[in-house]
Design goal:
4 helices, mainly alpha, 129 residues
Length: 129
């Protein structure tokens, strides 16, 4: 049986995952619409998609995942830093594994997609919200 504290943490992790999936869906949708329908170059479409997904993620995590009472002026800038660091860490992990292993792209992307959100959850839980 889960203790109340552990049950609460599991619920928070599930809410974090749900918001992350929603933000990912927004990111992919915006990027595909901009690039596919409007011919926006991929890098520009990806940047616009990151910005849209960032807002879904921030608002969702603030209100739903962590039910935060932190001031937005503090939480926003911390969350932005964590989001940018997570983006950079994912890119770095992909590059490092490309040079240090013989793993294929799918394996490298899978590892990055599992590690970055896990670390992001911890940092957001302890530092941002």
């Amino acid at each position: 049986m889960l203790t109340p504290a552990l049950r609460s943490e599991v619920g928070r992790i599930l809410r974090f995952a749900a918001v992350g999936l929603a933000a990912t869906a927004v990111h992919l949708s915006v990027a595909l619409v901009l690039a596919g329908l409007f011919g926006v170059p991929a890098q520009a479409a990806n940047l616009a998609a990151f910005v849209a997904a960032f807002w879904v993620s921030y608002i969702g995590h603030y209100h739903f995942s962590f039910q935060s009472s932190a001031r937005h002026t503090r939480a926003f800038w911390r969350f932005l830093g964590v989001a940018l660091a997570g983006f950079a860490a994912g890119a770095l992990a992909l590059e490092a594994t490309a040079h240090l292993t013989d793993w294929g792209d799918l394996a490298r992307l899978t590892i990055s997609a599992m590690l970055v959100p896990a670390v992001s959850y911890i940092v957001n839980r302890l530092f941002v919200f």
